[in-house]
Amino acid sequence: METPARAHKKSKTASNGSEQRSARAHRRTNTDTETPTPTPTDMNTVTAAALLGLFFAVFVQSAPVPAEPPAAFREAAERAKTLVEKILKDIPTAHAAAVTTEGLTLDAGAQTNLQMMVKTLGIPDTPVIKQLSQSFTLDVYVSRMSAGSRLYQGLLGVLSDRVIGLSDLRSDLRDLLTQITKMREAAQLGADTDQNPSLDLASRLHGNYEVQVAAHLTLSRLRSFCHDLIRSLRAAATYRPAGEV
């Protein structure tokens, strides 16, 4: 028969065992539900991801969106293209009237022996017209068109005092400059900063030969410039925004 003291000791031992099992179960429960403490590496990864997302958001907002040329710009470009086509059509007639020296023709092969005369007569280079790009912006494009048109209007003005047949081309170039100005205004490009080219041609026309060569070179180069204008204006004049018929 078990004594009271032994029974009390056995009960106490059972009670302690039950408390220990309960404590272990509680520790397991806390371990399963407790959120792990982030390590420095995890924090760096999260921070980098947040900064990267912010960078792309700012980049997308600040990226330039290509503007569609307004209808007024396209209309002015179309009228300019029509004028350039007329100038191209009239150049052979003007050349036949102004240039009477044998051997000075509009054939491409006739230009090779006159490069020294370009420098001798002080005829400026024609402004280069390129396709629109990040470096060749619409502002540069319109400015080059304007500068080239003024250049040839000035050259023809000097030569008109010495030869005949150039007055119609001068008038067409004046009208072309008007349309180019309308293109600039429609696209809100601001004022044209290019100045009229400085021409020293009049002082170098010492005789009839220099006059003839100068007229020939001017008309030949004007024709090449107009071909460049036609290619660029055709794209501008036929441009249509998405959804427009």
Automatic annotation (TrEMBL):
Ranges of Low complexity composition bias in the record: 32-43
Gene Ontology biological process terms in this record: positive regulation of myeloid cell differentiation
One GO molecular-function entry: cytokine activity
Domain of life of the source: Eukaryota
Positions of the UniProt region annotated as Disordered: 1-43
Signal peptide: none
Compositionally skewed regions (Basic residues) per UniProt: 1-12
Name of this protein: Colony stimulating factor 3 (Granulocyte) a
Lineage of producing organism: Eukaryota, Metazoa, Chordata, Craniata, Vertebrata
